[in-house]
Amino acid sequence: MARYAEAADHAVEADRRFFQRHPERNYLIRVLSRAERAQIEALKGSTLNLTSDAPVAFSAIKQLAPGVRLRFVAFGPVEAVGENLSEVEARAVWEGLADVHPTVREREVMLKQAMCQPGGPLHQGGAA
Q: Hey, CA dihedral for 89, 81, 4, 40, is it positive or negative?
């Protein structure tokens, strides 16, 4: 697992740079990096089960505040992935996935609550 960590960190850093370059954006859908995929497969103990209906593993990312992002892995068609998606399209993908996976919404609520704690980016009225 450790051997993939540095390479996977590069993907997370690329996400940070994406949101830095596009401050008006809060959603990003991108193909998993090889390192991220290898980490997931190592945790599962098997390869990802891609199908003809869902041939791509991707990361759906929502920025809740600058530097605070929630991500989850999903599977779908190639058309659902890429920096070329507009904010509206990326948000629609995120919302559609979150509707199917309620734990995503639960994690978002927990993270927002944590962000409101002292020292958090939303403490004392910071904007999300």
A: positive
